[in-house]
Design goal:
The protein is mostly helical and 610 residues long. It is built from 32 helices and two strands.
Length: 610
């Protein structure tokens, strides 16, 4: 009995809510004819034909329950917003969260024809007319969007396409990413719609090229400063670039670009913001630049990855066979563990500086290269955002230029000032030089024969051919990455005397060459120096500067024999490094290896995402 009583109470409550809480719960004694007698301002026929025509007056004015009291002004008409929201709850929720509600703009301020309003057929002309009551619309009306909407093209953007109908949000602080994103996301909603753009003869390449540009990448990673579509093209008064009043008209581009890049010139404004480097017909210079860089990247990796694979195979099986036969021992030279100097302090400091700055450049550059990879925003967040990462990138670039300058200075000192008893030419092509010689070609041939079991494992002089390649690659890298990086670092300066399309070329070169450098270091260089059999998991020689005598004899016998003949071998003897020194070197080395392995994993992940 108790359960039945509870159910009866709930049923009674539900009936009460339905009767009292809905428009049809109003006093039926109040009918429309009584309202019309006094409210002559209402066109009853127009009201009857409106979308509200099937509703009685007190469907909205539900508090009027006594005509006599109402005629005597004894009752008020309820709040117009709450009235509309009773029947339009979804629109009501959106309106309450809008900037209109914050500024006390109510439903009837836009829907002033509430007594004669007809069903909205989706006409954007009607939307513009309503918004234009309060908002200046002349600029929009003269734009490409406004003219198309006025001509009846419902694909063209009207106020609601960008700002919404009822949930019109405040744009907020111009220095936030959310504000900047509005300048792009609203445009992309339509311009990324290939079917819509095809119907209207508008290319969709603009969206894709923007997303691949520096502006688009840093915007996607959370930049609060990156230029969006509206920053260049305008928001309401968008005009074709052939119109002299357009912000993208050639003569107006320096001013448009100058909003973010002070001092922009006509040359600077020749930058191609929506160029597609895959379009050979329209952008041949960019296409062939991209083709060259892609070919270089593929060729280098194809050759050196094959070299690495063959080396690993030969070295692994030969050492395995030596161990099986018991032929691999350290007694072939006296004092096999005696350390000998391989690198001096300048070499080690140079390498340490290079390593630190290179890893910093990779860490800050990879999220930009693979901005659409799922890990990119997280890595960029760890770095403090795209602009802080940009400063770190530039600091590391400055360190790179500094150590490269120091290297050039040392080379000049060695060639022209250091007294070795040799001429400049002998220094340049001698066995202690890093310049490739005929000896390197013979070493490559011997290495290939060993790979295929056609000869013994070769030994090398002071520098191997792959070490020379690594060293000389820095010079090409400084020209390609460093030169293009300088252009992109100071575009306003270089834009005074270089055409803007040079920056498009610089972006292709900088991006692809950086990918080549990082991929090569983290795979080929790491294998050559640390991961090959006999060195795994790390060769500490670059950190300690020393290698044991048996390695000098086994791997660099021509150098060993030459030093012995010259009587200077024993001058390279060193004391064992202190344990703490070894520990610090190992920590630094393994940290760098770990960062590199994570880097190559992220690169692979980024490519799989494409």
């Amino acid at each position: 009995m108790k359960w039945r009583s509870v159910r009866a109470m709930w049923a009674a409550g539900a009936v009460f809510v339905v009767v009292v809480g809905t428009p049809w719960g109003a006093d039926a004694s109040v009918d429309d004819s009584q309202c019309v007698e006094c409210h002559e301002e209402i066109d009853y026929e127009a009201y009857s034909a409106s979308v509200h025509g099937r509703n009685a007056c007190n469907s909205c004015h539900y508090d009027v329950v006594d005509i006599e009291e109402h005629e005597a002004c004894g009752s008020r008409t309820q709040d117009k917003v709450e009235t509309c929201h009773r029947c339009h709850p979804d629109e009501g929720r959106e309106h309450f969260a809008s900037v209109h509600m914050m500024n006390d703009v109510r439903c009837s301020d836009c829907h002033s024809d509430v007594h004669s309003i007809t069903k909205w057929d989706g006409s954007k002309v009607r939307v513009v007319e309503v918004c234009s009551v309060c908002h200046e619309s002349e600029e929009y009306a003269a734009s490409v969007h406004g003219k198309a909407v006025a001509a009846g093209n419902n694909d063209s953007a009207a106020c609601n396409d960008c700002h919404g109908l009822h949930r019109i949000e405040e744009l907020g602080d111009p220095n936030t990413h959310e504000y900047r994103a509005f300048h792009t996301d609203t445009c992309h909603r339509c311009h990324a719609d290939e079917a819509m753009m095809r119907r209207n003869g508008v290319p969709t390449i603009a969206v894709k090229t923007y997303e691949e540009s520096y502006h688009g990448k840093v915007e996607a990673l959370g930049s609060a400063l990156a230029a969006g579509c509206a920053d260049c093209h305008g928001a309401h008064g968008i005009l074709p670039s052939t119109d002299p009043a357009s912000s993208t008209y050639p003569d107006n581009l320096p001013k448009t670009c100058g909003k973010c890049h002070p001092g922009s010139t006509i040359q600077f404004a020749q930058f191609l913001p929506h160029a597609d480097h895959r379009d050979k017909e329209n952008y041949p210079v960019l296409y062939y630049t991209w083709l060259f860089m892609t070919g270089l990247l593929v060729a280098v990796f194809a050759v050196f990855w094959l070299h690495t694979l063959l080396w690993w195979r030969a070295a692994y099986w030969e050492r395995r066979e030596r161990l099986r036969r018991g032929h691999y021992q350290l007694s072939e030279v006296e004092e096999p563990l005696r350390p000998y100097r391989r690198f001096n302090w300048f070499d080690r400091i140079l390498h340490l500086t290079m390593m630190a700055s290179f890893l910093g450049l990779v860490a800050t550059g990879l999220p930009l290269k693979f901005h659409d990879a799922p890990w990119a925003p997280a890595v960029m967040g760890l770095l403090g955002g795209p602009h802080r990462a940009g400063w770190i990138h530039r600091i590391c670039a400055g360190i790179t230029f500094a150590y490269f300058g120091a290297c050039i200075g040392y080379i000049l000192y060695y060639l022209f000032l250091k007294d070795t008893g040799e001429t400049v030419w002998q220094k340049l092509v001698g066995p202690d030089s890093l310049v490739p010689t005929w000896r390197d070609a013979k070493d490559i041939g011997a290495m290939i024969r060993w790979f295929f079991g056609l000869g013994p494992e070769p030994t090398f002089d002071r520098w191997t051919y792959w070490e020379k390649f690594d060293f000389l690659a820095v010079f090409w890298g400084m020209f390609a990455i460093g030169g293009s990086g300088l252009l992109l670092w100071f575009p306003e300066f270089f834009g005074r005397f270089l055409p803007g399309w040079v920056f498009n070329v610089a972006m292709i070169v900088h991006s692809d060459e950086a990918l080549l450098a990082s991929g090569f270091i983290f795979t080929v260089h790491f294998f050559n120096t640390h991961f090959r059999p006999g060195k795994f998991p790390m060769d500490p020689v670059i950190f300690t500067g020393r290698l044991p005598k048996h390695e000098l004899w086994e791997e660099r016998r021509p150098w060993y024999e030459r030093l012995k003949r010259q009587g200077v071998l024993e001058t390279l003897q060193e004391e064992p490094t202190p344990p703490l020194w070894d520990l610090v070197g190992q920590v630094i080395g393994f940290t760098a290896l770990g960062v590199g392995l994570v880097g190559i994993a992220l690169i692979a992940w980024g490519f799989m995402g494409h």
